[in-house]
Structures are given as C-alpha cells and as structure tokens.
Amino acid sequence: MDLRHLRYYVAVAEERHFGRAAERLHMAQPPLSQAIRRLETELGVQLLDRTTRRVDLTEAGRAYLERARAILAEVDEAADLARRVAAGVVGRLAIGCVGSATYSLLPTLSRHLAAELPGVDFSFRGEMLAPDQAEGLRTGAIDVALLRPPAADPSLVVRLLRRDRLVVALPADHALAGRPRVRAADLAGTDLIVHSADRRSVMYDVVLRVLRDAGVEPRIRHEVGETSTLITLVAGGLGAAVAPEPVTALTLPGVVYLPLVQPVTTVELAVAHRADRSEPHLLRTVEVIRQMFHPPVGTGQADTDAPPAAG
C-alpha cells in the first residue's frame, strides 16, 4: 500500500474537510479526493460519508484511522532511527582502558561521551593491558581501546592521543621519597614492582629499557596485571614502580609520586579500533575522543596522527 494514501486519509479524517486537508498537504483538492476514492476501492470498504459541507467517518473509517495513525507513527520512528544511525548518534559500544587511563581519563571521558552522544550506550572495561585490548578488539569483546600502542598490527587503526611522561611511585618512607625528582640511576638496588611480563605488558618493556639504558639492572620483586595493584603494593612498602604520569590520579596513603627526570621518557596513549569496523557510531565516538585531545583547528591546538609504537 502507498504510504502517501495513508497520510492523505489521516489528513482528511482529522480535518473532516477535503479543502482544509488539501491545504494541510499542500496539494490540490481533486487529486486528494481521487486518492481517497482509490484507497476505498482498494480496501473494498467505505471509509468516509461525504456531504457538500463536511466529511464524516464510517465505523470502518474510524477503525482504519486508528491503525493508520499507528502505522505512520512507526514509519516515522523508523525513519528517524535510520537517520540517527547514519549520523552515528545511536548504538552500543564497549571501551577498554589501559590502567592509568582508567583513573585519569575515564571519569571525564564517560561524561563527555554521554554529553556528545547521548543515544549511544557505552560500557567500559578498565585496567586492561595493551595486548589484552588488542585481542579484545580482534574478537569483538571491546569496540574501542585507549591503550599504550602495541607492535604494529594491520588489523587495527591506532591514532595517537598524547604522550605521557614517566613518574616513579615510591613508598612514603623510602630513602628517595624526600627528593623533588628521581633519575633512573637512583633506582639501582631498589626493589621494583612492574607490570607483568607474562601478559606482554607494554610498560614492562619500557621500564626495563629505561633502567638498563641508565646502567641499572632492574631488581624486580613483584609482577602485577593491574595498575591499581601496582600502586597498592608500593603503598605497602614492597617496592618502587615506574609508571605513566596519569597514574598520579590514583592517590593512596603511603605513596609518593616523583617525576623521572633522567632520562626524560614518554609513553604513548592512543585510541584504537579494528580496521574493518566502519559503523557510524563507532567512528563518531573515536572522533569525539580524538577531539578531547586535539581540538579542531582554531582552538589553539593541532590535530596529530602517529603510527603505532612498537612494544
């Protein structure tokens, strides 16, 4: 059935007058009258009682009006949904966050995404190591990742958001805790807590490289999978830890954070998704995240892309 005839009928039924209905529909009266006649012929029932002054509905016409309104409402709703899906403002996405981003970024990110894309249902997974995030993207367990870039992977699109400097987390009673800053060489002989090597943590390789480049052979006491556990063990006096600066958002009694000044080292934070994913709401979400770090030209900051970093 032609949906235009449904709209024509609803207009005539609500106006109870062909002339007013024609004005409402922005069409001439004769074609409107002919369309309603064709509709009645197609249905095999009389929908309207016509007089020279007004139009009344038959019992069949009243029943048909109720259903016609419901059908048109559903059609309009479907069209609106299609437009919103195409615009990337509805959908469902799971976002995985690396440990330090969980504390420093997730609270702001969740509020920003809710404000910018209120029709998208977001869920979040925190404390994910980069290899687990990459695997989650490949399997569909998560849709978007905020990660420390892994080795180049052609199945993923990875875009740089920022570079974070490293800090040293120390127990408050540690001999170095009273200093304003720490050099990598100062950590010689200090027990260390690091992210897990078995789980292929990016930070594990970074920390070992920084220390060995400074001539320090790392004395690893504990390996952990979560940044919160890393800092908790530091608070317990079990050792020191080298971590990205955003971890300082995780405040615990008994922990002191000091900048690592020699060497000055940064680690990348990036947003990633699978290269074969092109749903509008996913791409829109990635763009909203990028603009949090790289506002459009004219706001004083430049947009930056970078290839994935190794490790």
Automatic annotation (TrEMBL):
Sequence ranges assigned to domain HTH lysR-type in this UniProt record: 1-58
Single GO MF descriptor: DNA-binding transcription factor activity
InterPro entries recorded: LysR_HTH_N (IPR000847), LysR_subst-bd (IPR005119), WH-like_DNA-bd_sf (IPR036388), WH_DNA-bd_sf (IPR036390)
Keywords noted in UniProt: DNA-binding, Transcription, Transcription regulation
Any one of the GO CC terms: protein-DNA complex
Highest taxon listed in the record's lineage: Bacteria
PROSITE patterns hit by this protein: HTH_LYSR
Family according to the record: Belongs to the LysR transcriptional regulatory family.
Database matches in PANTHER family: HCA OPERON TRANSCRIPTIONAL ACTIVATOR HCAR, TRANSCRIPTIONAL DUAL REGULATOR HCAR-RELATED
Name of the featured protein: LysR family transcriptional regulator
Species of origin: Streptomyces adustus
